[in-house]
Amino acid sequence: MIVSHLQLTDFRNYAEAEVQLHPGPNLLVGRNGQGKTNLVEAIGYLATLGSHRVSTDAALVRSGRESAIVRTRLQHGDRSLLVELQINKAGANRAQVNRAPAKTRDLPRHVATVLFAPEDLALVRGEPSGRRRMLDQLLIQLTPRLAGVVGDYERVLRQRNTLLKTARAAARGGDLSTLDVWDERLVAFGSELIVARLELVERLRPFVADAYRAIAGDEHQADLGMRMSVFGASPDEDDPTSAADSEHRRVTIEVAAEAFRESLTRLRRQEIDRGVTLAGPHRDDLVLELNGLPARGYASHGESWSFALSLKLAAAGILRVESPTGDPVVILDDVFAELDETRRSRLASAIGDFEQVIITAAVEGDVPVDLAQNVLRIRAGEVVDE
Questions:
Q1: Is 374 annotated as a binding residue?
Q2: What are phi and psi of 94, to 5 degrees?
Q3: pTM
Q4: E strands of 191-314, at which residues?
Q5: In angstroms, how far apart are the furthest CA atoms of the chain?
Q6: 328-353 pLDDT, tens per residue?
Q7: Pairing verdict, β 113-116 and 222-227
Q8: Where are the alpha helices (DSSP H) in 66-224?
Q9: Which ranges carry the RecF/RecN/SMC N-terminal domain (predicted)?
Q10: Domains (ranges, CATH) in the chain?
Q11: Is 33 labelled a binding residue?
């Protein structure tokens, strides 16, 4: 897949912007704060239905405006596709594909991207929520209908937590007559999400191992696993050295649902006391292992960077194999400045055969010369020359 044209209206700091992009590497150069990342953020949003920088859409709309427009022309082989999205500060977003109305949740069927940014170091060193979000965004790109499952689970979770808080506020004597109903809905959506994540992690493992070797060399072994609260992982545990639970790498939805129900029953009193749901996929963690040890507790700074890069390269690899759109657009947002010369060269080699790569950099010299074939210069929300 190739993004041949990008047009923005009232997106971030752009009143209007039009960018022509090319197959192969594209380099966006400009000082910090000029709008380079905003361009790639817009492309990434179409694929994941979210920003890698903010959690709400309102921040994507230019100050003083109520909506932003992202319009892209995509090339899938000989097929051309026009994808348009209106991002609203208030109310639902609206989408079109080839000028026909479309559901926003279906956009990942047409757009596939993998974006790596300096913030992604938190995938290794940060909290579980970032790793869960990465898994879910990749799941949605591979199976767009799961956007509905993730959204439904989050909605039911909010409703159930509200009910638990109400019971706690009423001196533990609130009305819990509807809790069983919410439990079953939570289990239905949650067990599907648990199994989808586990299956994805199993498919990702060889890609991660290969990507880490490509970036860091053959002397290290990278692996993935899951810690799952419904199978007994403590919801209060925040130990970065905790290992993955390899016993439950392959489970059915029925097995996951039964374990989920048992967990909710066992934790019911604690949940009422605390006013929050203590088991489910929202409490799980993707464990990154390096040479048999959890990377979060043991990896050096350089090893953490290599692992974060490996995760994104693995995502690109699995999309290349499984996505109907073929190669994803690989986006490297201000990454090369963070790498030494060896890792820059190895990363350039690892991404060199993807159909399209978009790179942002404050200093052109940070980027290997082979990736600086098509250069766009960005200044104060404008593309100033090519």
A1: no
A2: -130, 145
A3: 0.87
A4: 222-227, 285-290, 293-294
A5: 68
A6: 999 999 989 888 888 889 899 999 89
A7: unpaired
A8: 122-125, 128-142, 146-169, 179-216
A9: 3-364
A10: 1-112+323-386 (3.40.50.300), 120-317 (1.20.1050.90)
A11: yes
